[in-house]
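for the writeup, i need someone to sanity check this before i put it in the appendix. the sequnce is what the collaborator sent (i think, or maybe the updated version? ugh). structure was predicted straight from it, no edits. if anything looks off just tell me and ill rerun, i have time this weekend
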Amino acid sequence: MTFRKRISVIIPAYNIEDLIIRCVKSVCEQTYPHELMEVIIVDDGSTDDTYKKIEDFIDKANQDSENRQYPKLLLLHQENGGSSKARNFALSAATGDYIGFVDSDDYIDSHMYESLMKAIEENSSEESPVLMAQVSRDEIAEDGTKLPDVCIPPKAVKTINGEEHLRTLLMHTGDASFCTKLTSRELFRGECKGFPENELNEDFYLMIHMLKRISKLVILPQQYYHVFYRSGSNSRKKADQKDYFPPVFTDIVRNSDVAYRLVKKNFPGLRDIAMRFCLIQRLDYLLHIPISKMNRSNKFYRKEVVGFLKKHMKDIFQNKYLTSKNRVYLLALGIAPKAVRSAHAKIRGIK
């Protein structure tokens, strides 16, 4: 197949000196024509040797005749502002027809972008172009072992529309990450021109707003994107921080409400599934919040989480997408959240 579309791959990097080169190399060694690729790495104000390691890698790639076939490499720098700001900075410099993203601690298979672009070309028509394609992913632990799949890969190539993909996201079976995808540059405009900054669930937020403009999304079964789990990330609790509550749990509740409003306006047929999503995200919040933070001074916990459950008791009883176990937990936590959490912690042996 002769390819013509250009691809820009964006890698935000912050204090990742031990893993950044593995990531960049995996992108540089793609089988997709290198003359149609550019790799944009944004150093997000690192305080370790991340910037220097990337700079040295690019210098060596430019000098080494063996690496002359590497894609164009561009290294940018900004004061520390977070992954979304770094991605948005790179988007302003990107020239590709399609955009890919790779997190700096992850790495990808060498066939990933060729396979994605082939799927885009084979499933596109003038009337119905494919604006987004996705590979499957696997999860790799810090010791190198493979973890259970978070998203189960399809058995064969699957084509769905934006509403169908939104349904999978709301049912916690789909993949909201932009890292597993190639996304048409056309989609990054208007209200979707960039990632929301200072948020932890930024991919989900941007994805659900893009989906109303997607008539066709192709999902490949190959697990070509490798998610590498490091200890002490934003979303995982550190063992030595008993009362630490990752802010991602607050963000997932806020984003569930954003999703519900979007569904009511654009996908009314998904209303019950969106309500289930709001309830399950609050259940996740309540099962993780430290008991010490379950108090009246915590307005978000009291009003937006527990208050929401009290207000939606009818939905908890009637929503057909909730399991019996979901209902029991939600009803109990809505009535006596602190007592239920204390009992839950005691049963599970959590101090």
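Strands lie at 7-13, 37-44, 72-78, 98-101, 107-108, 132-140, 146-147, 158-160, 181-184, 217-228. The chain is about 40% helix and 15% strand.
thx in advance!!
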